[in-house]
Amino acid sequence: MEKVWPYHGSSTTAGAIHPIQYLDWYIPRLQQMRKYNLSYSGLQYVWDFEKYLAQSLSDVGYHHIPSFSNSEQMVADRYGVKAENVVITQGATQALNIALLASIDTLDDEKNIVAVELPAYAPVVQTPLLLNCDTIPVQRRPPVDGIGPWRINKDEWLGVLQKSKVLMITPQLNPCGWDYESSDRKWIIDTCKNMGITIISDEVYIDSMKGSDDYKPFHLEGEHCISVNSLTKIYGLGPLRFGWIIANEEITLNARRVFLTLSGMMASPTIRLASAVFPHLDLAIEKIKHYREINLPVLRKMLARQNIAWNEPPYGVFGAFKLPNEFDSIAFVDGPCADNSVLAIPGSMFSEELSGWLRIAWSIEPKLFSEAILNLEKALISIQ
Question: How far apart (Å, rounded) are the C-alpha atoms in residues 238 and 43?
Answer without folding.
Answer: 10
